[in-house]
Amino acid sequence: MLPTRLRKNTAIRNLIRETQLSMNDVVYPLFIVDGQGVRREIGSMKEQYHLSLDMLGAETQALKELGIRYVILFGVPDEKDSEATPAFVETGLVQEAIRVIKKVDPEMYVITDVCLCEYKSDGHCCFFEENGEIQRQKSLETLSKTALSHVKAGADMVAPSDMMDGRIGHMRETLNQAGYEAIPIMAYSAKFASSFYGPFRDAANSAPAFGDRRSYQMDPANAREALKETVLDIEEGADIVMVKPAMPYLDIIVKGKELSYLPMAAYQVSGEYAMIKNAVDSGLMDRRAIFESLICIKRAGADIIITYFAKELQVMLKEYQ
């Protein structure tokens, strides 16, 4: 334990604090929808919104004023099809959102989630054979085509969240062949089949029409498998690896960080947000719990935290750090 004279002195306590948070640690998720004049609160995620493209410019400016310099985009189109066409068309929601953000704030760093579940009519992240087996090659080709369309629109980084075997290598090769060797890939490497995604399914309108995603997302009981998946993504050319969810899997963040010098990201997912947010709003927990949750994720080894609390962090840094 630190000597009392160090613990009681705020200036010294801040000087010797082992873990520090800053606005450069957080990425804020944005959900883009069809329509005009849409800024609609997501029912299961208080103070998080669906935004139409015409509302995105004002949101971008507001994020800049809050000190947020990194965003990750999710498209939620009204129309979906069996081929996930809205994911990769030039005029898709994410593609257009990148252009809007870059026009308003060229320095905003734009990451795009690359998956098919928001765009396929069955809500799955991949294609299937008639016998129910994953149609791997078609899935990889469509995911890579989607990533390339995002980069052509101006994305700074792509983040494949599908958990298909081999997708990092396929995507890296596709981007390289198109002349985008400098675009980094942030891999959702250890993405667990978690109940904590519940509110996100509402936000992204991506609940599967049949079955679940356990055949390609990971069993929450398996730590060694998570590390194996992380190693495979590193070997295939990932630039950043990720653990999702964050707080229930802090042990995976710690172990994953020990595997490589690569940066580690963690996604504080919708269920984590909803639990903490509702508890704080109802008075069951102090608002400091938000800050504590973020600093614990950072302490575990995350260099990047994707969090719906990013808008609140600037004020909390002044209050608590």
TrEMBL record:
<dbReference type="GO" id="GO:0006782">
    <property type="term" value="P:protoporphyrinogen IX biosynthetic process"/>
</dbReference>
<keyword id="KW-0862">Zinc</keyword>
<keyword id="KW-0460">Magnesium</keyword>
<keyword id="KW-0350">Heme biosynthesis</keyword>
<comment type="function">
    <text>Catalyzes an early step in the biosynthesis of tetrapyrroles. Binds two molecules of 5-aminolevulinate per subunit, each at a distinct site, and catalyzes their condensation to form porphobilinogen.</text>
</comment>
<feature type="binding site">
    <location>
        <position position="308"/>
    </location>
    <ligand>
        <name>5-aminolevulinate 2</name>
    </ligand>
</feature>
<dbReference type="InterPro" id="IPR030656">
    <property type="entry name" value="ALAD_AS"/>
</dbReference>
<comment type="similarity">
    <text>Belongs to the ALAD family.</text>
</comment>
<feature type="binding site">
    <location>
        <position position="115"/>
    </location>
    <ligand>
        <name>Zn(2+)</name>
    </ligand>
</feature>
<feature type="binding site">
    <location>
        <position position="229"/>
    </location>
    <ligand>
        <name>Mg(2+)</name>
    </ligand>
</feature>
<dbReference type="GO" id="GO:0008270">
    <property type="term" value="F:zinc ion binding"/>
</dbReference>
<dbReference type="InterPro" id="IPR013785">
    <property type="entry name" value="Aldolase_TIM"/>
</dbReference>
<feature type="binding site">
    <location>
        <position position="125"/>
    </location>
    <ligand>
        <name>Zn(2+)</name>
    </ligand>
</feature>
<keyword id="KW-0479">Metal-binding</keyword>
<dbReference type="GO" id="GO:0005829">
    <property type="term" value="C:cytosol"/>
</dbReference>
<dbReference type="Pfam" id="PF00490">
    <property type="entry name" value="ALAD"/>
</dbReference>
<comment type="pathway">
    <text>Porphyrin-containing compound metabolism; protoporphyrin-IX biosynthesis; coproporphyrinogen-III from 5-aminolevulinate: step 1/4.</text>
</comment>
<feature type="binding site">
    <location>
        <position position="117"/>
    </location>
    <ligand>
        <name>Zn(2+)</name>
    </ligand>
</feature>
<comment type="subunit">
    <text>Homooctamer.</text>
</comment>
<keyword id="KW-0627">Porphyrin biosynthesis</keyword>
<feature type="binding site">
    <location>
        <position position="270"/>
    </location>
    <ligand>
        <name>5-aminolevulinate 2</name>
    </ligand>
</feature>
<feature type="active site" description="Schiff-base intermediate with substrate">
    <location>
        <position position="191"/>
    </location>
</feature>
<feature type="binding site">
    <location>
        <position position="213"/>
    </location>
    <ligand>
        <name>5-aminolevulinate 1</name>
    </ligand>
</feature>
<dbReference type="InterPro" id="IPR001731">
    <property type="entry name" value="ALAD"/>
</dbReference>
<keyword id="KW-0456">Lyase</keyword>
<dbReference type="GO" id="GO:0004655">
    <property type="term" value="F:porphobilinogen synthase activity"/>
</dbReference>
<feature type="binding site">
    <location>
        <position position="201"/>
    </location>
    <ligand>
        <name>5-aminolevulinate 1</name>
    </ligand>
</feature>
<feature type="active site" description="Schiff-base intermediate with substrate">
    <location>
        <position position="244"/>
    </location>
</feature>
<protein>
    <recommendedName>
        <fullName>Delta-aminolevulinic acid dehydratase</fullName>
        <ecNumber>4.2.1.24</ecNumber>
    </recommendedName>
</protein>
